[in-house]
Amino acid sequence: MIADVSTLRSEIGVLYLSDFNRRAMEKILNNASLEFHHLVDCKPYVYLWKKHPLAAEKSVNLKMLAPYPCLTFDQGDHSSLYYAEEIFTTGEYSQTIKANDRATMLNLMVGVNGYTLCSGIICEELNGSDYVAVPFEDESQNSDAVMEIGYITRKNMTLSRIGEEYITSMKRYLENAQAL
């Protein structure tokens, strides 16, 4: 996605910064002539199938998750921990399954009671209503962990009308999601 925005294959890319990846990502973005635009800060959540044994918990920690596989996105040949979509990429998980597309990830959540760590922002229009986000709390990880979600664009680039509409829609969606 960074390469796509840098080469103008894509106008906008959405990603997050955290204490773990911030310095490296800012350097990568700067070297690619990209700039990050803040949208929202989120605490980490565990993303689960709504019938997962932990889906009704008030919060979940790594000990509770140990019997279940952690689902992560395969970042390709040039993978880096800094590119990971999950916030605690250096966490030690008893089981890990890598997938390279969202549909596979959602099917694994149902089929093997897998989970992933995320922002807690769930778009039912994209993923359906079969999934929940439960607050993640664990003393062994940084309890102040925050995902700063934003979008990237080429430096000094004026967005197209469609790009502007997309950003406006994203901001509206995020405002509504935080109001819930």
Percent range of helical residues: 25-40%
* Count of strand segments: 8
Q: How many strands, what sense, and barrel or not for the largest sheet?
A: 3 strands, antiparallel
What's the rounded overall pLDDT mean? 84
Can you offer a commentary on this structure?
The structure is a single chain. This protein is an alpha+beta fold. The longest helix has 19 residues, at 161-179. Helices cover 29% and strands 24% of the residues. A 3-stranded antiparallel sheet has the order 1-8-2. The chain has a 3-stranded antiparallel sheet with strand order 6-3-7. The protein has a two-stranded parallel sheet with strand order 4-5. It has helices at 2-6, 22-31, 62-65, 102-111, 124-127, 161-179, and strands at residues 13-17, 34-42, 45-49, 70-73, 96-99, 116-118, 131-135, 147-154. The chain contains 6 helices and 8 strands. The chain is globular and about 50 Å long.
Summarize this entry quickly:
The chain has about 180 residues and is of the alpha+beta class. The chain is built from six helices and eight strands; from the N terminus they run H-E-H-E-E-H-E-E-H-E-H-E-E-H. It has helices at about 1-5, 20-30, 60-65, 100-110, 125, 160-180; strands at about 15, 35-40, 45-50, 70-75, 95-100, 115-120, 130-135, 145-155.
What are the SSEs and their pairings?
Blueprint (H helix, E strand, L loop, with lengths): L1 H5 L6 E5 L4 H10 L2 E9 L2 E5 L12 H4 L4 E4 L22 E4 L2 H10 L4 E3 L5 H4 L3 E5 L11 E8 L6 H19 L1
Parallel strand pairs: 4-5
Antiparallel strand pairs: 1-8, 2-8, 3-6, 3-7
